[in-house]
Amino acid sequence: MYKVSIVKCNDYQYKKVEEAVFQCLNSIPEIKSKIWPHAKVLIKANLARADKPEEAITTHPSVIQAIVRYFQIIQCRVVIGDSPGAPLGYTKKTLERVYKETGMMDVANNTGCELNYDTSVIEVINQEAVCLKKMTIIKIVEDADFVISAAKLKTHTMMMYTGAVKNLFGVIPGRLKMNYHLMMLSVERFSEHLVDICQYVKPVLSIIDAIECMEGNGPSAGDKRHAGLIMASENPYALDMTATHIVGINPLEVPAIAAAVKRNIFSGNIKNVVTPGVGLKDIKISPFQQPDTSKIGGGIPSFKYEVCTSCGVCVESCPPRVIDISSGRPVINLDECIKCFCCHELCPNKAVDIKNENNIYLGF
Description:
Blueprint lengths: L1 E7 L5 H13 L3 H5 L5 E6 L15 H13 L3 E5 L10 H11 L1 H8 L2 E2 L5 E5 L8 E5 H5 L2 E11 L3 E3 L13 H8 L3 H15 L3 E11 L7 E11 L2 H11 L8 H8 L10 E2 L17 H5 L3 E4 L9 H5 L5 E2 L6 E2 L9 H5 L5 E4 L9
Parallel strand pairs: 1-11, 2-3, 2-7, 3-4, 7-9
Antiparallel strand pairs: 1-10, 5-6, 7-8, 9-10, 12-15, 13-14
Organism: Alkaliphilus peptidifermentans DSM 18978
Pfam families: DUF362 (PF04015), Fer4_10 (PF13237)
InterPro entries: 4Fe4S_Fe-S-bd, 4Fe4S_Fe_S_CS, DUF362, PSI_iron-sulfur_center
């Protein structure tokens, strides 16, 4: 059986969030027995872009601050870190901007915890991996005694859903994410890579900020959706399965979850989940709007030129480099597009739409 702790929390008022996070984690007492005093704990937040907390794209600072406080009380040395999306690069300047915009600097000021500015990377061996036996990750992951995946519940145009497991793709440094997308062209192959990363990092705990979530064409261009939950588990796959079940997505249709089940890492059966506190039957949430890509089993990116500013982020974020902006506006070579939707995810102006192969627009 898999224990998934769920606590209701209606908004981000800090005292309420702290109470909810503490209640959630206290329902998993095994955590305290694993972590020793003075251990270095990395909270791997979802900080993919330099977005304000109210955008519901990144893990909310109130949730991160409560997690920090919890582990400081048990005398841990807590560090917040992530490697933002590819076009931003993995530099101190980028980290400073992202930490400031996402509210992580405020968390550090309020708690005295550390923000990771070490941009060193390291090649690691992952013999059990299905995709890459060697991979490069941010060094802070190796330096930490324990890693906590602190994710945001969102839909995802490529992966259908992003949570505890997908959040760990952020341990791949900056622009190298683009190379890995090129190495794993299919959704299935990329999903195996996500599982490989999760199995290597082995987060001691995974937490999902599901107070304000995102539905539709997430992980950054969707619509905010209130769920009012904090969720946690020692098992990131069981946590993601439970989260998708709650928001009306078939867990086994989420490629990363399906890949973990295929490899017998966990059962994939929601009946094997126990929820201390709030039970699944006590949660009434109408199904989330799924990404347009899931409705037709694919889709292609298309620019909305009326809102496009020709900033060039799409060009910088495209793994196969098939977006040309020499005419003054971006144009995609669809014959070579790998449909990773990085351009859609990282566009700061939500100027990339999803359409089907017959040029029929979906959504907007």
